[in-house]
């Protein structure tokens, strides 16, 4: 079997080193035969076996950076959409999968999962924006058997918390693209996905052991 390569995509928008270090820890702890690479080169995307798109900042700025990295969106579409490579989007990297974002006006996204990135509007005026801090994940009825959860979320413990920091959320067109929610003055999508793509609104690389378990599951995932 060919050696796995996890590629952290460098497009000038994201905490790349933190994400890479978290994957490196999982690989080391579990003695996996896997490399982690940070790169802005489309040719590395074409050679990798798993892709991770982090993201920090405003949706239009991140999308512009992605589009201005020569050959990046073309390589991503080829490997993720055409070839079905396992893909993980983190925070704004998850949001970029949307049809469009509405931060600072409408901006087209990658349109991999239908929906819009819209402002969080909590029903409690005491809750501050951005939504920042630790929250639990919620599944359908909060009693969803683990066997029925997405593979990457199969070992999630309902008492575990994940670290969020965001002002906008991914509003999917179709409910089956929601894989997990959290609550912050109402339901907020925490994990979305379809086919070979999954995205987390929270930062697994900042979520301690719960986040590392999720990254480990992503490395095992064979969509």
How would you characterize this protein structure?
The protein has one domain (4-220): Rossmann fold (3-Layer(aba) Sandwich), CATH 3.40.50.880. The protein is 26% helix and 29% strand. The protein contains 6 helices and 13 strands. The strands form 3 sheets. The chain has a 7-stranded mixed β-sheet with strand order 2-1-3-4-13-12-11. Strands 6-5-7-10 form a 4-stranded mixed β-sheet, with helices on one face.
| Biggest sheet details | 7 strands, mixed
Distance between the termini: 17 Å
* H/E element order: EHEHEHHEHEEEEEEEEEH
Helical residue percent band: 25-40%
Strand proportion, as a percent range, falls in 25-35%
Report the mean per-residue pLDDT as an integer: 93
Instruction: Identify the CATH homologous superfamily.
Output: Class I glutamine amidotransferase (GATase) domain
* Oligomeric state of the chains in view: single chain
Helical stretch count?
6
CATH C-level class is Alpha Beta
Major beta sheet, strand line-up: 2-1-3-4-13-12-11
Architecture, CATH level 2? 3-Layer(aba) Sandwich
Summarize the structure.
With 223 residues, the chain is an alpha/beta fold. It contains six helices and 13 strands.
